[in-house]
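Q: Could you fold this chain for me?
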Amino acid sequence: MRKFSHVMTALAVTCCLILSACSGGPSSPGGPGGQGDDSSGDSGALKGKWGDWVEIDKNAVVRGASGDSALIKPADGAIPYVIDAQGQKKWEFPAGTMTEGEEETLYYDDEHIYTMLEEDHSVIALDWATGEQAWKFTLADKAKCADPQGYYLYPGSGDQVNRRLRDNNPLVLGWSSTFDSSGPSECSDISNAEKDETAMNFGIDPATGKQLWTVDATPNLYGYYGYAPDPLGKYLYMFWDLRGQAHVSRIDVNTGDMTTAASNGLSPDYLWPLEHPAFMTVGINEFVIINQDETARVMAQEYVNNYGEGKLLIRKEKSQNPWELGTTMTRTGVAYNFRAPTGAGEDYVGRLIAKPGDREDAKYSEWKAPAPDLTDNDAEVPQLAYFGDNQIIDADPKNPIMVVPSPDGGVVAYQLTDGAEVWKSQGDTPGTRPSYSAAAGQVSYVEGDDFVTVDATSGEEISRDSVPGIHAVSTVGPFQVVESRSESPTRMRVWTQ
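A: Sure. Below is the predicted structure, expressed as structure tokens.
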């Protein structure tokens, strides 16, 4: 079976985020800055303090948090587990869950952590406090003639990299594989004409595990190649083809209503055949499809209820630069794109795509700013030095601020709307891997062998610790984890009010 990968492709920004997170440790799941923080407090130093550093497993990152519990994801393939604020293990994931590799499934909210079972792709909810299974959603008898291994879990309209569920949207269980098998044995002798429509997408209530809606289709006629999130938070987009005609459908995640935009006739030859294509959001109703060595930009101008209709424009894209592609969304609803330099003399390019309250006619802004050259390093993806796991200060989500390495040393904060400088910290070398903590109202980053923390409203330095060889920094809720490339242990600290 041909499967669409969650990780998509090494060319996608989203992929880089995921791979960086899996590589490592407390210093950053590292891609263009997804907002993992649970707190929505005001930026700036808040009342409270960081606790003492405690040691946890080497090469681990924090992937989620709720109350005094944090989800820890080891990078060596070990089973994820949940710890308390003292670093003590509370429980670990049961065997047979999809928590590794390209098919990793881990999402959460304040009540549960959600994952899938490898055996039959059932969806389960695990209680934060105890690890006990709160509910289970099983595909049996819901999609009898479709291979359950083709179903994957998506966080409603939220970003697939930022693991926290957005708003009160349901989970979506979608079938993102081309149909190469007949499913269960009782379906193998049924002709295509005799097969009933099969539920392709299920809306699942995260609180109860109850089915909220389904979207039906005839999978043996179509190739479904992937899903992409909506910058406005209302839809989940699907890319598929019907006998060579490209379609982008959008599902209203609250109702299950689906409308479609289609290309005028057969899609361009360079788009076919599709082999594990990447499908990504790059704007409002704007997408890219990366297929082997070709990239297509797709604009949906009209959605209708009938297949083969609507209006979908496709053009060939010259560049496959991953830093020009893909959209990242914060928990508060800020959608943006950020391009890092690939060599000396190049600028930052930032784009604000959408913010809370925007409508479909919103226009994104683009700006440039000088950047240091950090590409001459031994990292597998050198550009990742520019990125932090939480580099957007969105205490005011309608006026977000981006923090990036400064060519003058330290880090610099820019208005995401227009690139205007807000503040700049002091330093001898550019500060890498910036990570914003909404709980503390602070930004932490790596400067040489130092781990530096500054005030998120002014850039004024608060603390500087010597931690040689820092590889990653991850910050979620009140938890912050730092990993070193050396033999030094992975360390965690917790912000307390």
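A (continued): The two ends are 51 Å apart (CA to CA).
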